[in-house]
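Feature request, filed as a ticket because there's no other form

It would be nice if the structure record came with a short human-readable summary line next to the tokens. Right now we just get the raw output. Example of a typical job, pasted below so the devs can see what we mean:
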Amino acid sequence: MNKTILTILAVAAACLLIIVNFRTMTNNTKATTETKEVDIDGLTFELSDNVTVERVVYKNRYGIEIAGDMYLSKDFDKSEKHRALIIGTPYGGVKEQGAGIYAQNMAERGFVAITFDESYNGDSGGVGSFKDVSSPEIFVEDFSAGVDFLGSLPFVDREKIGAIGICGSGGFALTAAQVDPRIKAVATASMYDISSMVRDGFAYSLTDEAREQMKVQLAEQRWTDFANGYSAVPEGGWPTDGPAETLPEGLPEVMSEFFEYYGMERGWHPNTMPNFTLTSSLAFMNFPLMTHLEEISPRPILFIMGENAHSRYYTEEAYEKAAEPKELVVVPEARHIDLYDGGDKDYIPFEKIDTFFKENLK
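Raw output as currently delivered:
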């Protein structure tokens, strides 16, 4: 038997061994979930009389426990298979805020809707020195972990699972969909590309020299964090002990808008910390999101942005890069945060979102 044949046989045997080991590992690994009652008083919005909500806990592929809230309509029939949505929070937000409003509204329309806290944030896994860490890969993985969980439910049709991302999670949802074809349709609202925000600065304001200086400072910060045994978080942001009654003076326009939501009665929640760890920025500088947007096609994307959103250029750039089928909806007069909770004029186009997913999850 010549060397070529021996080599082929050796490779085939190795591949077979990998497959057998993978199947064994898969068969021995069961998804663990738990459900419990949700603290309704902890929501930043009023729970509809037409839905029920319960806490679900499941693990992502890193073994991190993800805390989510599952919304179902009051007349939900668990004997049938239904469409389902995994809904991400604004960057730094938690499931009890705007994402819960999306989940509630979609549940009223017949969807199984789950919103979740990203790893190391809110009620999800990651405690002590790891709390409030931000990671592009893990935050993207959290979307696919939500699909894992939804697909395990007997009343969910695995071929009818979609994703909604708000603000930063819009970029994470799109990035997940690039490599996870189980996500059959994606919608984003007030999307932010966090990797671009960190690497390029808002509106591409960061110079190459400033970026290099930032790398040096953050690399030095790693020495300090290692010596201290915890990761430092920037000072400032919004209050953690209760909502502010008025906006602080002198805030830049963009920060003032975020403070209006996160720091005041409108959206304040005790689990929403004002900043991520300093060194979290290094990962976003190194790993750009949404580099393969065109690969989501032929699955559809719905982009939603406010007419007056400071962030609209992120959505416009993503829309241009994405392949068909795609649709862009501009909400008249709405700012960035108005698509978190609807603002004072019910800016969120839920009827459009409902139509989009019902037409594309079938």
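Something like this underneath would help us a lot:
Residues 31-193+289-360 form a domain with the Rossmann fold fold (CATH 3.40.50.1820).
The first helix runs from residue 3 to 27.
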